[in-house]
Write a structure and sequence with these properties.
alpha/beta, two-stranded antiparallel sheet, elongated
């Protein structure tokens, strides 16, 4: 599990809030029950007195003062339970409740992260990824090779569109399975609608489900955020900008659709270079052909990508159009 301090603190604040809310709920239940059934307060007072009396007996041993504390408390507890049920309350009405009975809303069981903590971490990572809703449909479970024909070939490799897609999926799974010990980059390129973004989403879902911190941006949104952070000193943009360099996986989608200028080029190089130096994985997708990409961005950007990323070209017909022609299937 890969959480930064900000994310961990956010989760622990949520657990603290749960504990406080349940304690307030218990206090209110006790107040209501005491008002309606005064004997309940007397019982709790008697249990406290018996516990103190037992402690004194242990400190100053005397046969005449000794008694079975467990039996005495059990008897009073039975009376309390009976009173609650007679007055229409459930037997556990006065007990402290927990969202998770295993860790009792602490997030830990015997110094190990509870399963609820892991689920909460994944939920938080989904929210912060920017693509929570779309990953419900765009994932490997729904991925289909039926849109990749065998009669269209990749001129560079001689492989059909189907074989090219199958190879890209194999490399995507290799990227996922080796993610922890072998951070690297993937560069998807090809015509519009051949599945570059979809495959990026598939990878994102698998890694988020494994509790990695994934951030997704369209190129326009990424450079707009960086511009706000640089020129407007926007506080919200500043918070997110730090994650761009630190997240486990950064996805930059549709690179080349933004308004390219010197600022964009310098920020792109800084982002790519910084993440390579920090051994952080990045996925970039673009509709640009390699000649156009080299012309749009600097040679040093192209060099850093081609030297450190796995370059995967997808070919075929526009899948969005195919789906429309098939009635959205």
């Amino acid at each position: 599990m890969s959480l930064n301090n900000f994310q961990y603190d956010a989760l622990m604040r949520a657990y603290n809030e749960k504990q406080l809310n349940h304690k307030h709920e218990q206090d209110e239940h006790i107040r209501q029950a005491y008002d309606k059934i005064p004997r309940l307060q007397e019982i709790d007072g008697e249990i406290a007195s018996l516990s103190l009396k037992k402690a004194r007996a242990l400190l100053l041993p005397s046969p005449k003062d000794d008694f079975d504390l467990s039996a005495a408390i059990a008897e009073l507890s039975e009376e309390r339970t009976a009173l609650l049920q007679i007055h229409g309350y459930p037997p556990d009405y006065l007990e402290l409740k927990y969202d998770c009975p295993f860790c009792k809303d602490t997030g830990y069981v015997e110094n190990q992260k509870c399963s609820c903590f892991k689920k909460a971490a994944v939920d938080l990572l989904y929210i912060q990824s920017n693509i929570r809703e779309i990953l419900e449909t765009e994932n490997f479970e729904n991925f289909s090779f039926e849109y990749y024909p065998q009669d269209i070939t990749n001129p560079a490799t001689g492989l059909s569109a189907l074989e090219t897609a199958q190879d890209a999926v194999d490399k995507a799974w290799d990227f996922i399975d080796r993610f922890q010990e072998h951070p690297c980059g993937l560069f998807f390129y090809g015509d519009t609608g051949v599945g570059k973004t979809y495959l990026s989403h598939c990878i994102a879902k698998e890694l988020i489900d494994r509790a990695y911190f994934v951030l997704y941006f369209s190129s326009f949104d990424l450079f707009d955020l960086l511009a706000k952070n640089t020129f407007q000193k926007d506080a919200a943009a500043s918070d997110v900008a730090g994650f761009i360099y630190d997240c486990d996986l950064l996805i930059i989608d549709d690179l080349g659709t933004e308004l390219t200028n010197n600022f964009v080029a310098s920020q792109l190089f800084c982002c790519i270079n910084e993440r390579i130096m920090n051994h952080k994985s990045t996925i970039i997708s673009t509709n640009l052909a390699m000649d156009d990409f080299l012309e749009t961005y600097s040679e040093r950007i192209f060099s850093r990508i081609s030297s450190n990323y796995t370059m995967l070209k997808l070919v075929g017909n526009d899948i969005r159009i195919q789906k429309k022609l098939l009635g959205g299937k």
